């Protein structure tokens, strides 16, 4: 193998740049050439790519976003789009692809590998932490810390005004961000799609808290569980408490990656290059019990990543 390509795809996540740096430097260390593809699979189709070297990735380990930019490519979902990408594989002499992103990114890599045989190595990078087969994805730690920082600030003003705040966090159809941010932020209730909830219980807990002297309440809502605005309205209706709603949104996707995400991204990026060099053709890098390992992309995509229910119950106990 002499030349590999690298792209980031799907929603960006803090630590993608650290991963790009690791892939490029590890490849260069082993004498490989790297083509950096811009704007995810769109750049693959449109030949928007250029060689990268060690200095192309200087001074990026601390930066959020992705210097390669990203996209959710509709074109790559079509056989015609992938055929165009394959023309570029031949044109640029690409012998392997590192695809950094979430499940959509891996689905794209898998189908391309099946159709055209290009070896692919996937690196799980999404704030949602929803990829089966890995304990952590790049960007999750930073996103949780961003949410906790916001909750800390909201708590100050919530206490001053004795208010109830509903904080809506991202996570697509999953509650991983909500659960960890809620637990770390000391939320009174955490609403996640994986666990049914009852408005009467939530209101009861809130009122009980105020009766015993609590000065504020914070409810963390995963975007996949309910609409934060509606939660605010319903709680106000049944408790007559003043509620305020804040939707953190894309704030959670930006910012300097945490040290944990930089280390994870460096280890995973390096492993992806090792997999391609070892002749692996369709693997995803993952972290299991602190160790960097790999699994077949098919296996990763066929499994379900389940939430830690013990953590959910613990958060409930600790918020009494
Ligand atoms: O997958 C990452 C994520 O931020 C989800 O948490 C969220 O639901 C989605 O992307 C938002 O996507 P977009 O940036 O396209 O609005």
Short description:
This protein has 320 residues and is an alpha/beta fold.
Q: Characteristics of this structure?
A:
320 residues, alpha/beta, Rossmann fold, 2 domains, seven-stranded mixed sheet, four-stranded parallel sheet, 11 helices, elongated, binds 6-O-phosphono-beta-D-fructofuranose
What does the secondary structure layout of this molecule look like, with pairings?
Layout: E1 3-8, H1 16-29, E2 33-37, H2 41-45, E3 49-52, H3 79-92, E4 96-101, H4 103-116, E5 120-124, H5 140-161, E6 164-169, H6 176-184, E7 189-191, H7 199-211, E8 217-222, H8 228-239, E9 243-247, H9 259-277, E10 282-288, E11 291-296, H10 297-302, H11 309-318
Parallel strand pairs: 1-2, 1-4, 4-5, 5-10, 6-8, 6-9, 7-8
Antiparallel strand pairs: 2-3, 10-11
Helix pairs in contact: 1-9, 5-6, 6-11, 7-8
6-O-phosphono-beta-D-fructofuranose (F6P) binds at residues 11, 102, 126-128, 170-172, 223, 253.
Structural class call reads: alpha/beta
What Rg do the Cα atoms give?
22 Å
Oligomer: single chain
Mean pLDDT: 97
How would the global form be characterised? elongated
Number of strands: 11
CATH topology of the largest domain: Rossmann fold
Neighbour order of strands in the largest sheet: 3-2-1-4-5-10-11
Strand percentage, roughly?
15-25%
């Amino acid at each position: 193998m002499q030349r590999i390509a690298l792209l980031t795809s799907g929603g960006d996540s803090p630590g993608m740049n650290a991963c790009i740096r690791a892939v490029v430097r590890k490849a260069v260390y082993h004498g490989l050439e790297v083509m950096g593809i811009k704007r995810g699979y769109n750049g693959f189709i449109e030949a928007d790519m250029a060689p990268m070297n060690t200095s192309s990735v200087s001074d990026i380990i601390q930066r959020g976003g992705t210097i390669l930019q990203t996209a959710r490519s509709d074109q790559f979902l079509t056989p015609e789009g992938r055929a165009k990408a394959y023309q570029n594989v031949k044109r640029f002499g690409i012998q392997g692809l590192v695809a950094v992103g979430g499940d959509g990114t891996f689905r794209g890599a898998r189908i391309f590998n099946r159709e055209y045989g290009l070896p692919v190595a996937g690196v799980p990078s999404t704030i949602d932490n929803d990829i089966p087969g890995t304990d952590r994805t790049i960007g999750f730690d930073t996103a949780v810390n961003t949410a906790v920082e916001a909750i800390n600030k909201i708590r100050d003003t919530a206490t001053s005004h004795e208010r109830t705040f509903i904080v809506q966090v991202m996570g697509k159809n999953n509650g991983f961000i909500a659960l960890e941010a809620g637990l770390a932020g000391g939320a009174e209730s955490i609403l996640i799609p994986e666990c049914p909830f009852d408005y009467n219980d939530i209101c009861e807990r809130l009122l009980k808290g105020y009766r015993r002297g609590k000065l504020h309440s914070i409810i963390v809502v995963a975007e996949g569980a309910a609409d934060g605005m509606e939660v605010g309205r319903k709680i106000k209706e049944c408790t007559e408490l003043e509620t305020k709603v804040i939707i953190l949104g894309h704030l959670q996707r930006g910012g300097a990656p945490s040290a944990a995400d930089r280390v994870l991204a460096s280890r995973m990026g390096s492993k992806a290059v090792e997999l391609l060099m070892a002749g692996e053709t369709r693997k995803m890098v993952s972290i299991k019990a602190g160790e960097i390992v790999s699994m077949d992309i098919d296996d990763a995509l066929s499994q379900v990543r389940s939430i830690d229910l013990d953590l959910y119950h613990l958060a409930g106990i600790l918020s009494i």
